[in-house]
Design goal:
The complex is a heterodimer of chains A (about 775) and B (about 250). Chain A has about 775 residues and is of the alpha+beta class. Chain A contains 27 helices and 28 strands. Among the domains of chain A are: about 240 residues, PurM-like C-terminal domain (Phosphoribosyl-aminoimidazole Synthetase, Chain A, domain 2, Alpha-Beta Complex); about 180 residues, Phosphoribosyl-aminoimidazole Synthetase, Chain A, domain 2. In chain A, the strands form five sheets. Chain A has a seven-stranded mixed β-sheet. In chain A, β1 and β2 form a beta hairpin. In chain B, α1 crosses α5. The chains are: A alpha+beta (about 775), B alpha/beta (about 250). Chains A and B meet through α9, β6 and α10 of A and α1 and β6 of B.
Chain lengths: ~775, ~250
């Protein structure tokens, strides 16, 4: 084959497109609808070239354009007060939101999905999910400081879960561990509803000095555009293979791998290289290459800047010289960045590349034409207004309606159902239920997973899984840092999409406050089924409405995130799963509160903050009995805010030594986990809760009522603690004391379970299934 | 202790230099724990000096730490490419010279030292084939080296273990020699976390100036930012080398 491969292409130039209006183009195969193709023709005033078609098709996809959700997502920007915007340096729409931390520091974080690739190819899908979100963080001028991974798999005992779980976990570890980023938490849920649609979400957080903030825009006419990092290959092209008409060469493979392949070493070098560029102020604008590759980077940089850019596509360094222009534009090869550099800085830029041995190529420059012009050996193959590609994609108001089955679902409450009869009542039955709960796939110890991740690298990790949130220090001289927690409950959201999204926020807000941090910002990853199904679209609309309302009430702005749709197998959608990440601020991470008590806490008083209602619908216990129906626990955001304030103040004033929020599994899970955290026992009684709240022992242990937490209070602080809670009008119950000698959790009058028994139940499950 | 640590870029900021000692920390492409090692050096009271793999100037450092990570991605064999770095030749020469430059290799640094033949043996993939991160109990077998003289012989310490290729292997003759010459510096206590021969976690050269181990002392130097047990056993590695340098215990 000739080395001059470019000559083998039947280059579809703009001139050619203008003179051959009737050429059939595979727009439908590229996922465009007929109205969308007609719109492109209208925008251009002619048919698109093959390369233009490739660009529009990827940029106008659901993934890149948010066309089904844009009209709903607006609420995140509308339901904000000035107070909420106070610390927001960069809001939604950029690669990631940026929040002021004080002392000249800022923090940026974002959560994204990599669901479908992780099902097709679990290792690479999960690995490149980390890679992509980390590059988003670098693009803001920040040093990435930690990652987290909320995961949802199918049934733990399903044969395919072996493939997916092993692949995803080793992919996250293999990639993330090689970047030197501590993995500080996340969640793991098993539910058959995710069997064909596992959810692999990835969160990254980065820190920066205010002056290092960078945005993705191409400004300064005459500035140079450079692509650097890994070479562009044929991975992640997906649909572009239908552009076969681009090529005369019928020997080239017609199908390309749809899933990208990651190279964490290249990413690590890229991180250090970018930080050196930022430090020396060598780039004017920067954009990572993720979904839609060069199409996205050029059109976004151009449309966010002065509006014009000229690029020569044959200057792109390739791993595969047979790639067509359309494939090069769509390739999602990993570990690439595009930057805008002034002519004066070109030499210094090249010196940094040489130091880190990073390949780069100068592709073109910023112009004032308002056009994105891409040439192939000098011939124009793309001539578009970049805004029409990047921002003016189609927007749909998809029809939605409350599903017919919703009423029946909500009427089917647990305690009236067949599954809800003969509930545990005696001490022995309650003990067996606690052990069953703590051994269940969702509540069992997940260190089989987290021990495959490096949680220590960086030396700034103050808390990590299994604590309520991950906490990292940012400034060593002051202890300034952040806490992050991610949460979602798909069962709650299925029962009530509006309340479920709020409950996800409530839990992550509570987790952050439990560790002692002040909640400051939110990033969300909205995992739903097909928006073309009115039932699903209703879940989505309700979820966004619920979440945005709750953010407003709690005073935490959404700074960015991601929507993942079409998570369904046939007609069966996943439970709506809005994963919410809350970021909290710490003036000094040294005062963070761990989720369990240590031996030296012996004799400290254990309090339950909040009231317990009969709320078992959608609970982990109902799930153990195979029931899903009724309505989720009541959302009380005012109570969440008050609880948060108590936990934060108690941490600041040294009133508590341990705190753990109540969520899935209720009080039974919280007490068990606090005992298991450092293997130190406790003696508690349920009488006060039962008398005060009018619930039985079973309900006291397993109800999932919200706005509750268990804390350990040193005896010397009890008066202050009680004064504070009563002044705030918050209900507390003194459950008992930490007992370092007993080696057990004793629920007086009900049962005693040894730490050993609890541990065996809790730790055995993951090993049993995954070795 | 000076705690100013720029998040971005160079970390070789002036320290309090209590000891006046300068300890180099080498960065290769893919090194991950270099900032952490530099922090540990400063916490011990020395000045951390950043050394770049491609340079040949040791900058008159008094000792060198080769930190952990995945240099060159460990794509070939852990440490196999890094050993050819110009800086490694300088370090090997200085370690073998009469001056006997103290060198500590941690994790990937240990792998680089075995690949450089400064230490015997080699590391292969953990026997359970998974990356493992845990708080690890070790026994100090030899407290006569430049990096362990602050410990008691037989002392049990907890530091952090995190690696993929941590299974220490060597032929039986070498293992017997290591034992006979008291060159096993550390062994794993209890469960052997990676299948290492004779539970070896770290070894030294004959002179005792070069020590390598898989677990990470630099992650157990500060209360609250290391093992759950909140100990700072890792700091003793770095204070040991300072007392060695000022002519204290060997």
């Amino acid at each position: 084959m000739s080395q001059e491969v470019t000559k083998e292409f039947n280059i579809d130039t703009v001139d050619n497109a203008a003179s051959t209006p009737d050429v059939e183009l595979p727009w439908a195969e590229l996922g465009l609808k007929d109205n969308e193709f007609a719109e492109i023709v209208k925008i251009l005033g002619r048919r698109p070239t093959a390369a233009e078609l490739a660009m529009y098709s990827v940029m106008w996809s659901e993934h890149c354009s948010y066309k089904s959700t844009k009209n709903h997502l607006r609420q995140f920007g509308q339901k904000v007060t000035d107070e909420m915007k106070k610390d927001l340096m960069v809001g939604m729409g950029e690669n990631a939101g940026v929040t002021d931390l004080g002392d000249g520091w800022a923090v940026t974080f974002k959560i994204e999905s990599h669901n479908s690739p992780s099902y097709v190819e679990p290792y690479q899908g999960a690995a490149t999910g980390i890679g992509g979100i980390v590059r988003d963080i670098i693009s803001m001028g920040a040093r990435p400081i930690a990652v987290m991974d909320p995961l949802r798999f199918g049934a733990i005992d399903h044969e395919d879960s072996q493939r997916v779980v092993h692949g995803v976990v080793s992919g996250i570890g293999g990639y993330g561990n090689s970047l030197g980023l501590p993995n500080i938490g996340g969640e793991t849920v098993f539910d058959p509803i995710y069997q064909g649609n596992p959810l692999v979400n990835a969160l990254a957080v980065g820190a920066l000095r205010h002056e290092d903030l960078r945005l993705a825009n191409a400004s300064g006419v005459g500035n140079k555009v450079v692509l650097f990092g890994a070479r562009t290959g044929g991975d992640g092209i997906g649909g572009a293979s239908v552009l076969a008409s681009e090529s005369f060469d019928d020997t080239k493979p017609s199908k390309r791998p749809a899933v990208q392949v990651g190279d964490p070493f290249a990413e690590k070098v890229l991180i250090e290289c970018c930080l050196e560029l930022f430090k020396a102020s060598l780039v004017e604008g920067i954009q990572d290459l993720g979904a839609a590759g060069i199409s996205c980077a050029t059109s976004e940089l151009a449309s966010n800047g002065e509006g014009g850019m000229q690029v020569e596509l044959t200057d792109v360094l390739l791993r595969d010289s047979t790639l067509t222009p359309g494939e090069i534009l769509m390739s999602e090869s990993q570990e690439r960045m595009m930057a805008v550099v002034t002519p004066e800085n070109v030499e210094a830029f090249e010196a940094v590349m040489a130091k880190w041995n990073v390949e780069y190529s100068w592709l073109g420059e910023v112009t004032d034409t308002d056009r994105l012009i891409i040439t192939w050996q000098g011939e124009v193959i793309v001539d578009v207004d970049p805004k029409t590609v990047a921002h003016d994609g189609p927007v749909y108001d998809r029809p939605y309606a409350r599903p017919e089955w919703q009423d029946a679902l909500q009427a089917d409450n647990f305690k009236s159902s067949a599954a809800g009869q003969n509930l545990p009542a005696t001490g022995d039955e309650l003990k067996a239920a606690v052990l069953e709960l703590m051994a269940s796939p969702n509540m069992c110890d997940k260190s089989w997973i987290t021990n495959q991740y490096d949680r220590y690298v960086g030396g700034n990790t103050a808390l990590a899984a299994p604590d309520d949130s991950g906490v990292v220090r940012i400034d060593e001289s002051t202890g300034l840092g952040v806490a992050i927690a991610t949460d979602a409950n798909g069962r709650y959201t299925y029962l009530d999409p509006y309340a479920g999204a709020q409950l996800a926020l409530a839990e992550s807000y509570r987790n952050v406050a439990t560790s002692g941090a002040i909640p400051a910002a939110v990033s969300d990853c909205l995992n739903y089924g097909s928006p073309e199904d009115p039932d699903v679209m209703w879940q989505l609309a309700e979820g966004i409405r619920g979440l945005s309302d709750a953010c407003m009430e709690l005073g935490v702005p959404v700074t960015g995130g991601n929507v993942s749709l079409y998570n369904q197998t046939g007609d069966k959608a996943i439970h709506p799963t809005p994963v919410v990440a809350t970021l909290g601020k710490f003036d000094d991470v040294a005062r963070r509160t761990p989720s369990g008590w240590r031996e030296e806490a012996d004799g400290q008083a254990i309090y339950l903050i909040g009231t317990t209602k009969d709320e078992l619908d959608g609970s982990e216990f109902a799930n153990l009995r195979g029931h899903l129906g009724g309505v989720p626990p009541v959302v009380d955001l005012a109570a969440e805010k008050e609880l948060g304030a108590i936990l934060i103040n108690a941490s600041r004033d040294g009133m508590i030594d341990a705190a753990h929020d109540l969520s899935e599994g209720g009080l039974a899970a919280a007490l068990s986990e606090m005992v298991l955290r450092f293997g130190v026992g406790a003696r508690v009684a349920l009488d006060e809760i039962k008398d005060r709240d009018g619930v039985d022992s079973f309900t006291a242990l397993f109800s999932e009522s919200q706005a509750r937490a268990v804390v350990a209070v040193p005896r010397s602080e009890e008066v202050r603690f009680n004064d504070m809670t009563s002044a705030r009008g918050v209900t507390v119950a003194r459950l008992g004391i930490v007992d370092a000698q007993s080696g057990s959790l004793e629920v007086q009058g009900e049962f005693t379970v040894s730490v050993q028994e609890l541990r065996e139940a809790n730790e055995g499950t993951m090993k049993k299934y995954f070795g | 202790m000076s705690t100013e640590l720029p998040l971005i870029g160079d970390y070789s900021t002036p320290s309090t230099e209590l000891s006046g000692a300068r300890i180099g920390v080498v960065t290769f492409p893919g090194t991950l724990d270099d900032r952490d090692a530099a922090r540990a050096v400063r916490a011990a009271g020395a000045e951390a000096v950043s050394l770049w793999h491609a340079d040949t100037d040791l900058q008159d450092v008094d000792a060198v730490v080769i930190p952990g990570g995945f240099s060159y991605g460990d794509y070939l064999r852990a440490g196999a490419i890094s050993r050819f770095a110009p800086m490694m030749s300088k370090i090997a020469d200085a370690a073998n010279s009469d001056a006997k430059l103290p060198v500590l290799g941690i994790c990937n640094g240990f792998q680089i030292l075995t690949e450089s033949h400064l230490l015997p043996g080699s590391m292969i993939k953990n026997d359970h084939l998974k990356f493992i991160c845990r708080d690890q109990l070790l026994r100090v077998e030899n407290n006569q080296t430049a990096w362990t003289n602050g410990f008691d012989a037989g002392q049990e310490i907890t530091i952090v273990l995190k690696n993929q290729d941590g299974q220490y292997v060597a032929d039986e003759k070498t293992l017997d020699e290591l034992e006979a010459e008291n060159r096993i510096a550390f062994s794993y206590v209890g469960w052997n976390p990676n299948g290492s021969r004779r539970s070896i976690a770290g070894v030294s050269n004959k002179a005792g100036n070069v020590v390598g181990l898989m677990p990470h002392p630099e992650h157990a130097i500060e209360v609250g930012f290391g093992p759950d047990a909140r100990g700072t056993d890792g700091l003793t590695f770095f204070t040991s080398v300072l007392s060695h340098l000022v002519g204290g215990k060997k």
